[in-house]
């Protein structure tokens, strides 16, 4: 396994992070336990979850994934082996705390306390804001229209997070689905007001969505706030399993077709086919090639993998051993020129 520093801390996190959002929906608790056991045994020390999980999010499965992780901590007594990341949900879910879902006051207090209880721990290593309170283009939305809404100032948010850092319930804080403007505003306030510093940005990044490179890559490198890449396989499209219009039984597309629309775009299949050809040409597994491409980026801290089978998990973890030579990278970049970010 490979390791990198989390932000400007002295914490080494594995460059492969175990994603957990399917546990409680596509995966049982026993399957989640097996994934955690295997991942830890193979050098992964970084787990990522969220209060909102399992996914697709719904009221009846809210918090299930955190409960599974908490039960594993209780059973194995290995909490100290894991750098644990979770997230507090932003606005738009009415079944969460009456729909307030802000990052200050009682809402933040209750969200954190509930996560700690479900996770059966007394601290979170990395507490992330799942998506901004303000109106932004996240989760693949394009065509930005500036529509102001009610949101708490960055300073208020940092002050509220700082309270929980001081009481020992949070070690570090991070962002998710954030914009370059938002990241820089948080960082400037942290410096000017001596408030907690954001250590990471959990945003999408994959061969089908390299939009992070446009503005956030430079921010990550210059400001030491690395990317935690989610959806590196684009919901399975970059595993090749959906080639030729296939929807394998039990897959996300087969189970929840109407929910997983983000990667069903006009040029998705064409781009995937080109990447598949590259993987075959150089005798690479397309999943491993796709994950490794993310891992080797200079702005990357860790790549969040998600698997519903042990076979998938093993394949994804083995990507750390893959080497991408200059010819492979050149051909990948040629495809990006022809089909630039087909799934932003």
Question: How are the secondary structure elements laid out?
Answer:
Elements: E1 3-5, E2 12-14, E3 16-19, H1 29-41, E4 46-48, H2 64-76, E5 83-88, H3 105-119, E6 124-129, H4 154-166, E7 170-176, H5 180-193, E8 198-204, H6 212-223, E9 226-230, H7 252-255, H8 268-281, H9 286-295, E10 300-305, H10 310-317, H11 326-338
Helix pairs in contact: 1-2, 1-10, 2-3, 5-6, 8-11
Order of helices and strands: EEEHEHEHEHEHEHEHHHEHH
Query: Percent of residues in beta strands?
Result: 5-15%
The CATH class assignment is Alpha Beta
The tally of structural domains comes to 1
> Which structural class is indicated by helix and strand composition?
alpha/beta
Major beta sheet, strand line-up: 3-4-5-6-7-8-9-10
Tell me the CATH superfamily: NADP-dependent oxidoreductase domain
Distance between termini? Answer: 29 Å
Per CATH, what is the topology? TIM Barrel
CATH architecture: Alpha-Beta Barrel
Taking Cα atoms only, what radius of gyration do you get, to the nearest Å?
Answer: 19 Å
Q: Report low-confidence residues grouped into runs of 5 or more.
A: none
Overall geometry comes to: globular
Biggest beta sheet attributes: 8 strands, parallel, barrel
The average pLDDT value, as a whole number, equals 95
Give the helix proportion (percent range).
25-40%
Count the DSSP helices: 11
Number of strands: 10
